[in-house]
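Final report, closing paragraph on structural work. Over the funding period we assembled a curated collection of sequence-structure pairs, and we close with a single example.
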Amino acid sequence: MLGLLLATPALVPTERPVTRPAGHVDPQARQMLDRTIQALGGPAFLNDKSLTSKGRAFFFQDGETAGMEPFESWVQYPDKRRFSYGKTKPVILINNGDKGWELDRYGLIAQPDGQLQGWILSNRYSLENLLRLRINQPGILIQLGKADFVDNAPTQGIEITEPGEIAVRLDLNRKTFLPARINYRVRNVKENAWDDYSDAYADYRLLDGIQTPLHITRYLNDNRIGETFRNFAKHNEDYPPNYFTAE
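Its predicted structure, as stored:
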């Protein structure tokens, strides 16, 4: 989303002490995660290789709309992205693992470090990568969290702690079991403070056998910084071999 295109301060995942041994998976929490994966499409979700989408992206500053751009996005899981935004002479962002480039009318340059790190962080804890990769890591700690509300809908929290004690909270809609929100905390080294990120997912539609959120809102320290509205989404398309390179 466009909020992620802005420069991001140097970020470090938080390390929190835990009171239970690493590698523990609460059976009830695991059962809820399994129901969530089934609700998202089961094997279709787990085997999804790419997502092509189009729509509008908004970003905000001090509570006010700071800009809006049409976008086109091509994502190849787990860590490749091509993102084009702008009406005329669009800017193209290309990401491949821990590498990133920006292509505009003046040519190709490396993405600024803050922008690149923002992409890596948000992609690591995206809905797809969290549920297909992160929760299956060796030594993962998964526990039931607190009940809450997201957009006035009741949710059940799942607390996920990765090796290294990186903590994430996933809020599941208690009726549909679809993900409503993903929270994670990172240290802002530049400002010597903690930043709390939150991605809220809404307006799910069944596309190509997969429940796909068409509305995604991103928050930083409870302030809305970005919002994406997809009006087109297609799964499992093939892309050219050099689509995610600097060529």
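Residues 1-7, 14-20 have pLDDT under 50 and may be disordered. The radius of gyration is 18 Å. We thank the funder for supporting this effort.
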